[in-house]
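Ticket #4471: structure output looks truncated?

Reporter: J.K.
Steps to reproduce: submitted the chain below (167 residues) through the standard prediction queue, then opened the result file.
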Amino acid sequence: MSDSKWFVVHTKPRQEKTALENLERQGYHSYLPDLIVKKYAAGRWVERIEPLFYRYLFVYIDTSTQDMSPIRSTTGVTGLVRFSDKPLEISADFIEQLRSHANEEGHHFTEEPTFTANEALQIQHGPFAGLPAIYKLEKGQDRAIVLINFLGSQKEIVVNQNDLDRF
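Returned output as attached by the reporter:
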């Protein structure tokens, strides 16, 4: 019977890849699920690869043959996530589920933006309901920055993406 289990590793801020590389150099089988995100930067949409779980990755350890103690001193690692002084185990089914939703290269991806930059829209709900707006960019998961005409000039406002619709 195998004593191999998945555990959760807490990393230092923005050091998930460093932690992954160093754990693998030490012989640990590790998994860092990542996400392809589209962000608006320097006037255009760019794709970036970011960790799916900020500051976390997973390590597969055979507890009968591998020592876990070196993990906490690995560069990029804060330590194992613990619950009641025991390292937190994650089911192999959860890891497999994560992997099954990744693309061929192993990356997860976000949906395409609902609207495109400079698209003419109408605000459907909220205090600006009925006003025309120009879509500027996505701001977070459910919000967007749009331009509206207000008192003779264009103003940026943040609205819920669900409150926007095409004419």
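Triage note (M.O.): checked the attachment and the full token line is present. The CA atoms of residues 34 and 51 lie 4 Å apart.
Status: closed, working as intended.
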